[in-house]
Amino acid sequence: MARFIKQSPRNARFQSKSAAGGENDPAAGGSLRLDPRLTLGAILLFALALQLTTLFVPHNEGDEVIYLTLADKVSKNFTDYTLQGSPLLAKLPKATYDQPIFLRPPLFVYLLALFGIFNASLFLPVLASLATLWTTSDLAKNFTS
Question: pLDDT tens digit string along 5-59?
């Protein structure tokens, strides 16, 4: 475990001074930091473990059904980004959902359509959240350097 812990420069100076005097107390003046890669890996594994349970649950909620229907329509016709003509529209309020330009983010729907053969409706949200965590960590690392 000690090999994954990096010492801050202040802590290293303190230990080198105290080692000369025969003391070795890192808690007295410095702080220990975990390796950022190990921390990021632990966060990603924890997030993945939390989301693995969603892979085995049926996804029948309203928004999920809407996204899957849109992805199915877009996979057949790239420009058909609407619920018009789908059986799902009969179950939804027409004032909100019967529009030529559907007011939902298109990237997720197009990715679902593109990776539909790999059962993307299950894995895409998990991969997207892990990528968001990774990107946030990378941005934070770049801002603190």
Answer: 555 554 554 454 444 544 445 555 566 677 878 888 888 899 888 888 777 777 6
Return the number of other C-beta atoms located less than 10 Å from residue 124's C-beta.
19
- What is the value of pTM for the model shown? 0.56
Helices assigned H by DSSP within 4-84? 9-20, 36-52, 62-76
* CA torsion through residues 34, 37, 43, 48, sign: negative
47 φ/ψ angles, rounded to the nearest 5 degrees: -65, -40
Distance CA 127, CA 4 (A): 26
Domain boundaries, the chain: 1-34, 54-144
d(CA 26, CA 29): 6
Q: How open is the CA angle 128-119-125, to the nearest 5 degrees?
A: 20
Residue 6 φ/ψ, nearest 5 degrees:
-100, 145
